[in-house]
Amino acid sequence: MARSEPRRAAVLGSPIEHSLSPVLHGAAYAALGLDDWTYERVEADADRLVEFVAGLGPEWAGLSVTMPGKRAALGVASEVSERAAAVGAANTLVHRPDGSWAADCTDVDGVVGALRSAGGFTTGHSALVLGAGGTAAAALAALAELGLSEATLAVREPARARDAAETAERVGLRVRVERLDRVALADAAAAADVVVSTLPAGALDAQAAELGKAACVLDVVYHPWPTPLAAAVTAAGGRIATGLDMLLHQAFGQVEQFTGLSAPREAMRDALAAATGGELPLPL
Hints:
One of its GO terms (molecular function) is NADP binding. The protein is α/β, with parallel strands linked by helices. The chain has helices spanning 21-31, 46-54, 70-75, 82-87, 107-117, 134-145, 162-170, 185-191, 208-211, 228-235, 243-259, 265-275; strands at residues 7-13, 37-43, 60-65, 79-80, 92-95, 101-104, 126-130, 150-155, 174-179, 194-197, 216-219, 239-242. The relative contact order is 0.14.
């Protein structure tokens, strides 16, 4: 393949030193023959993101955005995809030839791909979502894309679920908000077609056996592996998808939007598996 023109891309967030995005993008660019493309980590909070983007030149192809800058990313874009607007956040900024930026949320692809490939999800109508932050909002948009029609949001503080509930409304998903400590988790998990936990490591360890009754679970936690929730689901014969599956599947769309080429999925998967010790199968 002919040598490409030098292009740059990066992942912005804080903290950012442990981001695996350079592994995924680096593997993709190498497999695509984009030898002059580079991808780096940039420490940036929301305010720094705005300043950083304003100073970028035409050699920049795109930016991956992680917390805490996903909402700020919408503000620097002149074009916002429908799903990014629905979620209220963007994890992808693409540099246009005219110098403007387009925002998208491939986090939705991450959840869809994780549930289909690792979780074995095919069809259903109801979901149980634990947590109500930015990942939960992307998960709700993904659940609507998968054809589900309703979801229960189980949260510690219902007042903080407003943004996620508004996302559900925008994507046409009926949502009910419940206090986490008042939900009969075993019954709710068994009744749901899919369970998505966006809660941090350790938050659900005591309830893992109850949630293990679910047939299909996405647990954003993947380290240390297996998590108590993953172990409970697997022991009960269910299917488990993880945040690492999400990371992989959201990166495919970013690579394609940055480069205009099809993502080399196997190369990206193999690189991520190698970087994380091969503990997870990461099916495509």
